[in-house]
Amino acid sequence: MRVLVTGSAGHLGEALVRALRDLRFDVVGLDISASPFTTEIGSIADRSCVERCIDGVQAVFHAATLHKPHVATHSRQDFVDTNISGTLNLLEEAAKAGVKSFVYTSTTSVFGDALVPPAGAPAAWVTEEVNPQPKNIYGVTKAAAEDLCQLFSRNNGLACIVLRTSRFFPEEDDSREVRETYSDENLKANEYLYRRVDIEDVVSAHVLAAEQAPAIGFRKYIISATTPFLPEDLADLRADAPRVVGKRVPGYEAEYRQRGWKMFPSIERVYVNERARTELGWRPRHDFGSIVERLGKGGEVASPLARTIGSKGYHAESFAEGPYPVG
């Protein structure tokens, strides 16, 4: 089967191309940058390029995007051109070509201000039912592209699945305070409790979504590592996260103590992946418990695929303050 992967030179794009090639798919990799995983160099904002690349394709994996780190270096119009107009080009050409499955890589950033409850309130239990409140042009354009997917499913019969992925990038955190408080491995391990997912699991979710899109039609799914927390933990998570983690993942303290690591004192939200596990049959392999176990055996936080792909960064230039500027 012939499939199109947009953003093929990027972190997720490369991972998808690797996995789909291993599954013996005929993969068209589209990106503005050349790479071993890019077969067509061009922009999704170029309609003629999209039309050429989508010829004969049965499934589209749309991972190309401007990301949050680009907010400070790109204009709002750049975000509209890539994240909205580019997605519209792909949807229109996919509908015209009779594509069977369209999988759109979105982000939990669309939730925006809905992610941080008021002071003194319990942590937020974030499911697909939470109403997005985007707080920057990145979130606004990703949410708008989600709506375009729903429109094309409704009006054109194009099977579209939206995957709202949590953090899977390997780059350092953009907060200087966070970087100075926690080692990078410590930080990422902590995040698997509530806001991170491994690239291997993101890829498996995309493959399942493409397989099942024709039967589903349209649906949005949160793609994040399975949390050990329960709704009854939310108040305590905000007040004393280490105690809750110790209750839900007994034994993590010894591994952390050995490494000189620290747990976050407070956790303000929890991403819930239950819908994806129930409806897609998705079985993420990497979560906080499995990572603690792996560390105890001398392993690493990142999966083999994550380590193979490594860090790509978001900009050609470097910055004095952190891995990328904050806008």
So, CATH architecture?
3-Layer(aba) Sandwich
Helix content: 40-55%
Task: Give the strand content.
Answer: 5-15%
| Largest sheet entry | 7 strands, parallel
For the record, give the distance between the C-alpha atoms at the N and C termini, rounded to a whole number: 41 Å
In the CATH hierarchy, what is the superfamily? NAD(P)-binding Rossmann-like Domain
The CATH topology assignment is Rossmann fold
Helix/strand/pairing category: alpha/beta
User: How would you write the strand order of the largest sheet?
Assistant: 3-2-1-4-5-7-8
Any idea what the shape is?
globular
Got a strand count? 9
- The helix tally amounts to 13
**Pattern of helices and strands:** EHEEHEHEEHEHHHEHHHEHHH
- Please give the CATH class: Alpha Beta
Return Rg in Å.
Answer: 19 Å
Describe the protein in words.
This protein has 327 residues and is of the alpha/beta class. It is 42% helix and 13% strand. It has 13 helices and 9 strands. The protein has helices at 11-22, 47-53, 76-97, 137-156, 176-181, 184-191, 199-216, 234-239, 241-248, 252-259, 274-280, 288-296, 304-309; strands at 2-6, 26-31, 40-41, 59-62, 101-107, 124-126, 160-165, 218-223, 269-271. Helix 3 (76-97) links the parallel strand 4 (59-62) and strand 5 (101-107). Helix 1 packs across helix 7 and helix 3 runs parallel beside helix 4 (137-156). The chain starts with a strand and ends in an 18-residue tail after the last helix.
